[in-house]
Amino acid sequence: MKHTVLSAFFATAIAGPALAEDAICYNCPPQWADWASMLEAIDETLDIQMPHDNKNSGQTLSQLLAERASPVADVAYYGVTTGIKAGTEGVVQPYKPEGFDDIPEGLKDPEGKWFAIHYGTLGLFVNVDALAGAPVPQCWADLAKPEYRGMVGYLDPSSAFVGYAGAVAVNLANGGDLGNFDPAIEYFNTLGENDPIVPKQTSYARVVSGEIPILFDYDFNAYRGKYEEDGNFEFVLPCEGSVRVPYVMSLVAGAPNEAAGKRVLDFILSDEGQAIWTNAYLQPARPVDLPAEVAEKFLPASDYERAVAVDYAEMERAQAAFGERYLNDVK
């Protein structure tokens, strides 16, 4: 409890109160999904400054719940299951930015409590130079091989949404479904014998540095590494298959700078805002064709046929129970 209180205090202290024309976004980390470019565009286009914030999805929801009586954030970004949970918990309020109607059904709350802004596909972000001569793994099963001991990382699936999305992916790949996570538990226990690295927060820089040679991560981060960093990086969509996952945003209930928060959300769903995500190798939420110069940098469409959508509401309902089971059953 003491740790939780201190964590909440320091998170709030770091964010601090916003200035009159500024806004606070929880979980808008510059090294994730190229939020750096989006924050810069919001500053230049809207003259709204948003501090960098490195929470993960679970930490964001926890903070919103802790601050329910006196909100600090104006907008929040998280994985779709956390967005659904935030809506049911009442810590966000309905808002439909311009472009909301273009978002496909199932990827938005009908009232506007949350809505998708972009998609990613789960796979392996690999620093090839850090593999010490081992081949680039091609399948989820490969990661348990001795040559990858101490090289594999995945974000804590009991806290970080990308960690949970990775668990859903390996579970489906091994014959499970959203009602049966036995294959995922077995997989993580097997992987646990190979000394994996399990951080709680975004670890892009740790892959780039070679500290984590192989990370369960989204294609957009891997492509960013491949095309924008010094080094040899690859994205692998595992042979057994994977999942496509939307990320969503919300307007916080009682946002102290609500007008600025609405302007930010309007911009993110605008044509200009959605185009920024494509430059960061993300599929935008509003249906548009990727620019040719971006599309050619992706794996072939035939590879992406192995990535499936799931029932995201059902995925949300299963998340808490899986997180508890992971903590209890994975050694």
From TrEMBL:
Coiled coil: none
Signal peptide bounds: 1-20
Keyword Transferase found: no
Keyword annotations from UniProtKB, A to Z: Signal
GO annotation, cellular component aspect: outer membrane-bounded periplasmic space
One BP term from GO: thiamine transport
Domain of life: Bacteria
GO molecular function: thiamine binding; thiamine pyrophosphate binding
Family annotation (Pfam families): SBP_bac_6
PANTHER family per the UniProt record, alphabetical: ABC TRANSPORTER SUBSTRATE-BINDING PROTEIN (PTHR30006:SF2), THIAMINE-BINDING PERIPLASMIC PROTEIN-RELATED (PTHR30006)
Protein name: Putative 2-aminoethylphosphonate-binding periplasmic protein
Gene source species: Tritonibacter horizontis
